[in-house]
Design goal:
By secondary structure, the protein is an alpha+beta fold. It is 52% helix and 16% strand. The longest helix has 43 residues. It starts with a helix and ends in a 13-residue tail after the last strand.
Length: 517
């Protein structure tokens, strides 16, 4: 009986041992399979993954992804110093690298609270060069792994290459910007675009000349520089080129910052901002060329000398005199208009884009769009060389009226005025010069703070400088009428005088010329 029981027990033990052996085999096979799976993942995943451990120094464990080796260009990372292996040679250097080392040492081996209090000091993003020499961007994710006593024993670190995603984001942002700029260009006629590009080019040339005189720019040059940049900003906003206006505003800020820190500007300190104006204008031109077919060719008006045009107009007048009343043909009219365009333009035509921009500027300022009236009984034609001057001058004056002079609709109605203001431009010839007056029916005021529209005190200085350089001038003429109360603003008008060399006086020979011809 006892022998049989013993045999039975031995049989049970054999079967149990056999089951244990089989179970071990299954467990070993499972562990091997899992290990192989993990190894397969670590060898093929496109992320830099590793565990880091604390101690005398922060080291990399033996289990890390192959991609991590590719990132740091090192196939033997096990046991190596984590911070030096990953970040030396990257964009994380100096004090920031020392801070990272101290932070990791303060976290490892401590409670999870230590991580929560110091995690903001860990690196979240860095750059380093690839094996092919390309700059690559990596984000880094930190995950603390704590034991049952809530002590951090290891840190799981995951590095992800964000370079392609960032490039796609930059490309998408660039395309959005291109679409925005194209939308602005579409709102400008082709001839106006060519004309304004020419004006910008002359102003930028003036800026470059000021900066290239020497490494240091004196106070007189600073004023000229500020005037040119401010004019570009105003003209850009006039034509709705917002990116160029923004680039110019940033250049103004840089100039003012330099002026506050020193009376002498170092031209190299402005190179970035001035290059921003260059590159932004080039972008507009390239988009106009590539997408809209607006090649920067010479305007056809420039191909006909004004003297020759005048002679042709005289002959055309003689031809019209030989025609019977009512026989003047459309062909003759078209030829006359073409010749007039070759000679010059009316001020209303030159300022057409400025007039259109006034409405959008008024909306931006929360005001009703003012009416703009041109009073030009002499039908003065301004020669081509005067168009940049007139455009620059009225960029500042019209915006000054809308920004500072004309009130909001609510304020005007309280004063018994119409909700929308009126700006009047009057042109007259005198025996000695051409007089242009600009005035509005607003109350007047001054800017309380600088903005992207105006308020730096540069605009009117720029106007006087431009005019005096071309033998013109500007002054204020105050109205002598009574004021409602002491201290009220006195209405005034800008009076501009220009030499007659800027106009082509055809009024005596061609009294029927249209101001918009």
């Amino acid at each position: 009986m006892s022998f049989a029981l013993s045999e039975f027990i031995n049989q049970i033990k054999k079967e149990k041992n056999k089951a244990v052996v089989e179970l071990n085999k299954l467990l070993q096979a499972s562990v091997k399979e899992k290990t192989e799976d993990i190894s397969l993942i670590m060898n093929n995943i496109e992320q830099g993954i590793c565990l880091v451990r604390g101690g005398k120094e922060i080291t990399i464990s033996s289990d890390y992804s192959r991609y991590l080796s590719r990132i740091v260009l090192n196939d033997d990372l096990a046991g190596k110093n984590f911070v030096e292996s990953i970040f030396v040679g990257s964009s994380i250097q100096g004090d920031r690298l020392d801070q990272l080392k101290s932070t990791l040492c303060a976290i490892m081996g401590e409670s999870s609270l230590a991580y929560d209090m110091n995690s903001h000091l860990l690196v979240s993003e860095f750059e380093r060069k690839s094996g092919e020499g390309r700059d690559e961007i990596f984000t880094i994710q930190w995950t603390p792994v704590a034991d049952e006593d809530d002590h951090i024993k290891v840190m799981l670190v995951v590095l992800t290459n964000e370079t392609n995603i960032r490039n796609l984001q930059i490309e998408a942002k660039s395309k959005q910007l291109d679409l925005k700029m194209l939308g602005e260009l579409v709102n400008i006629s082709e001839n106006s675009f060519k004309s304004v590009v020419g004006n910008f080019a002359k102003l930028i040339e003036e800026i470059d000349d000021n900066l290239n005189k020497s490494d240091r720019v004196n106070l007189v040059d600073i004023q000229d520089l500020m005037r040119a940049v401010h004019t570009i900003k105003g003209m850009a906003r006039t034509h709705g080129l917002t990116e160029l206006a923004t680039a110019s505003h940033q250049a103004e800020d840089a100039i003012l910052l330099q002026m506050r820190s020193s009376q002498i500007l170092l031209s190299k300190n402005l190179s970035k901002e001035i290059e921003g104006i260059h590159s932004t204008l080039d972008s507009y031109i390239k988009l106009g060329d590539d997408k809209l077919g607006r090649r920067q060719t010479v305007d056809r008006r420039n191909s006909l000398h004004s003297g020759l045009a005048g002679s042709c107009l005289q002959q055309l007048k003689e031809i019209e005199a030989m025609l019977m009343p009512g026989e003047s043909s459309k062909a003759v009219t078209d030829i006359r208009n073409f010749l007039l365009k070759s000679v010059g333009n009316s001020l209303e035509d030159i300022l057409r884009e400025h007039v259109r921009s006034v409405s959008s500027l008024a909306r931006e300022l929360g005001k009703a769009a003012p009416q703009i009236l041109f009073d030009d009984p002499d039908r003065v034609l301004f020669l081509q060389h005067s168009e940049l001057l007139l455009s620059s001058v009225f960029t500042h004056l019209m915006r000054n009226s809308v920004d500072h002079g004309i009130e909001t609709a609510e304020a005007r109605l309280l004063q018994g005025k119409t909700s929308a203001g009126t700006i009047t431009v009057s042109i007259r010839q005198t025996a000695d010069d051409v007089q242009i007056e600009l005035y509005d029916d607003g109350a007047g005021s001054t800017a309380k703070s600088p903005s992207e529209i105006s308020g730096r005190g540069v605009g009117l200085y720029a106007v006087r400088s431009y005019l005096q350089r071309e033998r013109g001038n500007i002054h204020l003429r105050f109205d002598s009428g009574p004021r409602k109360a002491e201290g009220d603003p006195i209405p005034f008008r800008f009076v501009i005088s220009l030499p007659k060399t800027m106009i082509w006086n055809a009024q005596s020979e061609f009294p029927a010329l249209s101001a918009s011809a």
